[in-house]
Write a structure and sequence with these properties.
83% of the residues lie in helices and 0% in strands. The chain is mainly α and 428 residues long. The protein has one domain.
Amino acid sequence: MKHVRDFFLSAVERVFARLPSALLMIVLGAFVGPEVVGAYSWMALALTLSQALVDVPLRQISVEAVSSTGGTRLVHRSQLIGIAVSTSVLVLTYVVVVVAFTDLTQGDAWLFFPLIAVPIASIGSVSSIARLQAGNEWASLARIRSFSALLSLACTLPLLISTHSMLWVAIQPLIVESFVFALSAYRVRRSIQSNEPEVLDGDGRMAAELRSLTGYALLGWAEGQLDRVLLGAIAGTTALGSYSYSQALGRSGGEAVANASANVLRAQVAPLRDQPAKILKALDRSALVALSASAVVVVLVWAASEFVLPGFLSPAWAAALAAAPVMALSLLPSTTTWLITVQLVSLRSTRRALPSRLTGLALALPIALLATQSLQLAAWAVVARATLVLLTLAFTVRTWMPWFSITLSSALALLPLATVAILAAVSS
């Protein structure tokens, strides 16, 4: 019961981490065309790249790291380096892509500039959030994230509706992350300031693990985002905008669920470390809860795409709406993959996941080429890729795998694909 409660609170925190940006993107589609969303997507891709370089791997080790003096120093040092690296990536993308290679006027290009400051607040909050997670303060995290998200929506959504300006979409994540940074630091100082980290050796080991996780996260970013980069390069900003819109609608909710499950699992397995049997039990429990929640998200995405959004959006978004429910299906195997990754991190075996990452990476170009012809075909390819990545990971690792969860998530994702294929064959 406690696990379900922690998952629910973490899910609230993760949903509010992703929902506002996705909601604003969906609302923006009612006022602008895919070409504007495509320009924004280039900056969003750079932001996710910066997160893969710093944010994602650092959060993987931070819960364990803040329990030791050496680990805490490593986190703080990595935060400073990460802010510099992430900001540089966003500035370079802004200058090279948004300003030089889009049709936006100089005045419109400046509207994306607030996104450059987002990593400063996001990476700055890593250590505080890790301490709260380590202390199982999921209720506090949920309150902090939900308050920050609702405040950002209250500030930006009315202005977006009244002005139809991309500026408010770019400002919203900066508001969220700034308040999360400030409130999480305040909460740590107030509630757990007396819990000084133990003086434990482990700085060198965690630094090595961080480097390994950075490489793994970069491969993960390439696996999940390279198809968008290639599509933008091949077909242009408008095609990228439609594809990104379908992903925002189809995957944002499911990714929040997956991240929530991973966060709870990471805190649960941190004290277990090298006890694979206990870790596997926790993983199975997390996977079942996460898959149930993800299935609900898939249904909600389908309902929104079919009955709600067509009344607000222009026909230019029809292909994106048709592809969104299919995109949502890909989160079922991806959720299990992410949970297994937490397990591998705990067992210090992330390198064993390399073949699965390379498998996903190899399929980026075929998906991009399919997207130039049909977003829906590309979405089905994304589902197939996510399932193949999971099965490759299971085959590579083999031992200590949650086989029931792997089978369930693969079946839930592939059954609709098989049904569509059979119906298409019968109708032809």
